[in-house]
Amino acid sequence: MTTRGELPIMRPMSWWCRTAVVFLAVLSACGGTPKLTDDGRRVQVVAAFVGDLGHAYERRDATAVMAGIAPSFADREELRRHVESAVAGFDDIDLALTIERIHLDAETATVYLRWDGGWRATGRDPIVRQGAARFIVETGERSFLTAVIGDMPFLPAGAAPAGSP
To answer: Rounded to an integer, what is the distance from CA 100 to the centroid of its chain?
Structure first.
């Protein structure tokens, strides 16, 4: 017994108790990850697609950027010319795409995003732009960008292709 003001005396934990505690901690840590719904997987695929598109542009890989643009994209050829011009005309391209939310429809996703871009070339003043856009992404077997509404992040001069909504 303890007297007033003293803490109770506790016996040290036995080896099997320590083993059981460690086993339970490991078991709870290995419980697995939650399973995603189909919509959850679609959101992940769309977010990865948008990220890949931005990274391809930063790497100045016009072929990879255009591979992600749907053949039905309004003024696709004009966008291709702008992307190729940016790739050829700038030594360094930084493009940060920040996804705010993704809305899923039957076969498409609307990606609301903000972006910050920087284009630098030797002997020229850098171009710094930012904007907000909605990417309309086809979400079939393969994702494609079908439209951009708002500020086009792939145009350093700020001009949007004539066919963008």
So the answer is: 10
